[in-house]
């Protein structure tokens, strides 16, 4: 007797390149966007102690900057939110809540649907758009 196979569970994410909503397998760590054909990262990204960076951090998941970590980068794009418990200097585009922890320090422009700054958290300037969806991506040069 044959039994029909269940399709694998899916989740929906926004492509950080073209902002298209796409379905991906729940267990997938990376995917290719069927709308723009670019590769996307689905995992959460963590910046650990002593790390520094350049370029950009992009994921459909969360970006977390741990205590004692410092991330200086051009851009952070996170579909599920950003948590800052260390130091983050970047232009941030988040599809989820931006949380600056009690030991966190944030410097740069930010677009997010909501912002939480715990007591002791520091924001060092920048242009903030809270309550708006991230802007569409700029065209590649």
Describe the structure.
The chain is mainly β. The chain has strands at 10-14, 21-25, 30-32, 39-41, 45-47, 56-59, 62-65, 70-78, 81-84, 87-94, 98-100, 105-107, 110-112, 115-117, 122-123, 128-130. The chain has two domains: 10-39, no CATH class; 43-130, no CATH class. Helices cover 0% and strands 46% of the residues. It is elongated. It starts with 9 loop residues before the first strand and ends in an 11-residue tail after the last strand.
How many individual β-strands? 16
How many structural domains are formed by the residues? 2
User: What is the C-alpha radius of gyration, as a whole number of Å?
Assistant: 17 Å
How would a crystallographer describe the biggest sheet?
Answer: 7 strands, parallel
Could you give the distance between the termini? 57 Å
Tell me the layout of helices and strands:
Elements lengths: L9 E5 L6 E5 L4 E3 L6 E3 L3 E3 L8 E4 L2 E4 L4 E9 L2 E4 L2 E8 L3 E3 L4 E3 L2 E3 L2 E3 L4 E2 L4 E3 L11
Parallel strand pairs: 5-7, 6-8, 7-9, 8-10, 9-11, 10-12, 10-13, 11-14, 12-15, 13-16
Antiparallel strand pairs: 1-2, 3-4
Features:
7-stranded parallel sheet; 46% strand; 141 residues; 2 domains; mainly beta; 16 strands; elongated; 0% helix; 5-stranded parallel sheet
């Amino acid at each position: 007797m044959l039994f029909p196979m269940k399709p694998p569970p899916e989740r929906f994410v926004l492509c950080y390149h073209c902002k298209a909503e796409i379905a991906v397998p729940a267990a997938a760590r990376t995917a290719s966007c069927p709308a723009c054909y670019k590769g996307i990262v689905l995992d959460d990204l963590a910046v650990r102690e002593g790390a520094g960076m350049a370029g950009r951090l992009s994921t459909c998941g969360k970006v977390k900057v741990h205590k004692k970590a410092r991330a200086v980068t051009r851009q952070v794009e996170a579909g599920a939110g950003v948590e800052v418990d260390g130091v983050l200097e970047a232009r941030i585009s988040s599809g989820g809540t931006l949380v600056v922890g009690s030991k966190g320090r944030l410097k740069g422009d930010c677009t997010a649907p909501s912002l939480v700054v715990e007591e002791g958290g520091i924001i060092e300037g920048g242009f903030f758009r809270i309550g708006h969806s991230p802007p569409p991506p700029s065209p590649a040069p």
